[in-house]
Specification:
With 124 residues, the protein is α+β, with helices and mostly antiparallel strands. Helix content is 15%, strand content 31%. It is built from two helices and seven strands, in the order ββαβββββα. The longest helix has 12 residues. The two termini are 32 Å apart. Keywords: Ligase.
């Protein structure tokens, strides 16, 4: 399991000149991905019944040419000690005046403005 760099607006994986995904540095947000190894019961991915849904959750050429990895959809940040902190969920967005707005982003803003520790926001 690793964090790889993503474009936070489009959530597309950022790739280096070699075509492989770029790993995140401490403090840098990234999508959590897990290498798929079909021969290993702990790292295999049996997938979904819907072939299109499968393709959306699998990235190719992630760490080495020809490999595959499962895209969790979770954006996390790792600190210098290796602890992971949840930042966002790629599917938890809604459209407002042509812009993608993250529910987590709205929660953070409301929490600061209202001086409240816990705020929950969901798109309707």
């Amino acid at each position: 399991i690793k964090l790889v760099q993503v474009n936070e607006d489009t959530m597309e994986l950022i790739r280096g000149p070699d075509g492989l995904c770029m790993r995140c540095k401490p403090g840098e947000p990234g999508q959590l991905v897990g290498r798929i190894v079909q021969s290993d019961p702990l790292q295999r991915f049996d997938g979904y019944l819907n072939h299109e849904a499968n393709n959306k959750k699998i990235a190719r050429d992630v760490f080495t040419k020809g490999d595959t990895a499962y895209l969790s959809g979770d954006v996390l940040v790792m600190d210098e000690l290796g602890y992971l902190y949840f930042r966002d969920r790629t599917g938890d967005t809604f459209r407002w005046k042509g812009e993608n707005v993250s529910t987590t982003e709205v929660e953070g803003t409301l929490s600061r403005l209202l001086s409240m520790a816990d705020v929950v926001v969901y798109g309707v």
